[in-house]
Amino acid sequence: MSSVNQEPAHEGRSWLSPLVTLGIIVMGLAWAGFGWWKYGVWMHNGPGAGFFPVVMGLGAALLGGYELLRRRFETDRVSWRNLWPAVAMGLAIASIPLFGMVLAMTLFIVLWMALIERQSWLKSVAIGACAGGAIYLLFGMWLMVAFPEGALMAPFT
Amino acid sequence: MTKTVMVGKTALCGVLCLALVGGAHAWEPQRNVEFVVPYSAGGGSDINARMLVEAIRETGMVNRNILINNRPGGSGAVGNSYTYSKRGDGHTITTFNGGQMMSMVVNDASVQLDDLTPLATLSLDTLFVGVRAESDIENLDDLIERAEQDPGGITVGGAGRGGEDHLAFAMLDDNLGVDFQYVPFDGTGDVTSALLGGHIDAAIFKLGSRVDQSMVRFLATYSEERLDAPFDEVPTFDELGYEGLELMIFRGYAGPPDMPEEAVEFWEDVFRAAAETDKWTQEYVENNGLIPTFMGAEESAEYYQREQERYRALFQEAGMID
Amino acid sequence: MDILQSLMQGFATSLTFSNILAALVGAGLGIIVGAIPGLGSVTGIALLLPLTFQMDPITGIIMLGALYYGCMYGGSYSAILLNIPGDAPAVVTSLDGYPLSQQGHGGKALFTANISSFIGGTVGIIMLTFMGPILAHVGLMFGPAEVAALILLALCSIGWLLGDNPLKGLISTFIGVMLATIGIGTAFGQPRFTFDSMYLLNGISFIPLVIGMFGFSQVLVMMVNRVDPSAKGLSGRLGLKESLLDRKEALSILPVSLRSGVLGNLVGILPGAGATTGSFLSYVLEKKVGRNGDELGKGRIQGVAASEAGNNAAAAGSFAPLLSLGIPGSGTAAVLLGGLMMWGLQPGPLLFQNNPDFVWGLISSMYLGNVMAVLAALAIIPFLVKLLLIPASIMIPVIAVVCVVGSYSVNNSMFDVWFMLGAGVVAFFMTAARYPIAPLLLAFVLTPRLETSLRQALDISRGDPMIFLRSPIAATLLTLILLFVLYPLAKRLFMTVRRRGHKAAAE
């Protein structure tokens, strides 16, 4: 429960909380709908496959509705900067088929440190190489995890 | 014209045979081999694969590394699709067993038997129906009698839905002329607990799960013939007068679609040699209570095809697929 | 006395130089494997198993047992230091462990985790030694109806953890249950919410979910809320001396560890209840009976102690049905069962009679493995805490990469990697909107078992719900739920609503 750990609440943009709650209500209704019409709430001898989805979905939707009506939208401060790691990592993951797992992750560390954290290139490359090497040795060599190999690397293997 | 071709073919064949005797193959791995296991590390298929790799190493026939690649998910479908994506590659092999094929049938998976190249079958497993050792159900007739008195009230536990145990149950339910209630559990361990605790009346067990006979009384086996000791006292269904209750679960290996013929031959020979090592026969097959066998690529393909049709028919009869 | 004698003989078998070496190597490897998010004891043992076939069975099992213990120790590290629980029980450890390390007490949290693991594990092993077969038979009394009632109790106890905002906590719990219904469960055998994707057919994988929801969302938070370690004066507080527990602290975690050890061990023996239920119920017990119970969840070493002791004792407990009945009580025990068979041993009631050397060697090796693991762990803590000094500019990219590699390694699946990323973003927004994540994950872990057991019980009783009341164990557990869990929760919700009503009226 990381919310407990954070610094005293910043009352940030209040649209976020109702939006998340709205998302939960939609999910709850979807679960309840599928459970009710598709999976079946009751079978000949007790709860059916739709029972939990319907009960929990309706429960989440109703409580979420109440939460919206309460209109107490405390939210932690959130900025677009928070999402940068997700976007950058998304790009890095998308490049795995090209570079392979180890190289893509190494590149991510190097580029992130140099471009976003504004560290020196030397430091960035050094840390990236250490991390990449550690991943390769630990996961690739010792634990023999079958990492995807990149298309660009294929000629060399 | 025809004659010369014939002669040519014979000559070619002779050359090939010589090559085989000499130990060299028309195809040999040029890089590391990927051994796909469509289940998690530590499971039955995984241990099977890891032991086979050890046995192959002992034969010394593969001079490249064989790397296990666990691709669990979708009851085997994720691993099967991965193997399928390696079309035409001789460097990818996968475990292929009866349960894996059953889930293809039951889940109507996108990759089916026809999409893979069977290579060999090295061992067979079979099943039992059993009750608690202290139970007053002494034999199969007692069990049937109970079910006649209480139709649908006698509970039979098994591991999972749509797998080996469930299929064995469906055969029981169809062929004994009485109704039982199937209770699926997450694994053989949970089934055994429930049986010993008296929460269910009977249970399906695989031979390979090595359940101790001091705890469970086996009423009948699904094998085609009587098993070796310590199970030689357990009658087959056939002996008890119930036909059609035979189920052997194969444990085989396959490759991706369109695997080069030379590679198929190579792997067939490797598997044959590995099946004869002590490592395999004793440490794996015997210790796991399996039945040793060998079927080559062609024989396996035919066998799997027959089994697949049988599974489909049985699951249809049980109402589990349309 | 007979047992003590056998145990001594077991020690005589296991205490050779090569066995102690094997235990040390196993413990060290286990700590590394356990500390890496995404790899747990099942993977570790599966990887090491083929190697041990070359060894003498007793040496082999000692190495595996030590590896198992090492994993349990290592699993708490990433939970405490990075808020990335490596396995399900560690989710509970992170509830207090991560706040502690944020407050600069990472060293104390790690020491507490290891010492209470040791105490809990030892309690578990002692119970296994002297009462193993009896406990295993008690475990058999838990059929589907009883297990369903127990899991329901655990699920309802999540109510205790809901901090200042019980309503949002409850919604999170419901979401966890909903996510758990994805896939083909054993309970019904029909695919739910899979949208014809084979990747969802067996449900969402827990480890990528937890790595995303805890670890990656943490990275997103760190992006803005940067804590510069040097500015916070952390460096002065991370020496060895500051990491050790003082007398008072050590005394305060002792009763917690003992209580949790006993409870965790009992839960661990039950078929399929597992270490998560063990550590979680221990934590809830501590919250109820502990002296500072109310403060659990805000960074108290007692919380870490309860979770870790419960978890290790449960692990020892899962060996009782394996050794005395041949029934694996956990995923790891199932892999070990495979190992036993490879050595040509038949697990079951006769194992004690036919292979006493092996059984008692194994049991004594658990003591040995536990000692080796705690020694190895204590030796590396001073280095581990230094990780907290690494500045955010390096931590952010490196943790992000660890999240990706860890979630890939569980199933070798790129789908899991994308899923982890998505779960991280979703959890970040949920956290920002003050929806707690831990109840979601706990509900996710517990639900499948509840659904399966409920269905099994009703299949057995032909739909008669009385099966839950006729069984004395199930009936007792259900009464407990009514008494201790639902009543206060209802009262609390009622009070919140009424207070709000008053406030609204006053305005």
Automatic annotation (TrEMBL), chain A:
Residues 22-148 form the DUF1468 domain. It comes from Billgrantia desiderata. Pfam families: TctB. The keyword Ribosomal protein does not apply. InterPro entries: DUF1468 (IPR009936). The chain crosses the membrane at residues 15-37, 49-66, 86-113, 125-147. Keywords: Membrane, Transmembrane, Transmembrane helix. It comes from the Bacteria. This is Tripartite tricarboxylate transporter TctB family protein.
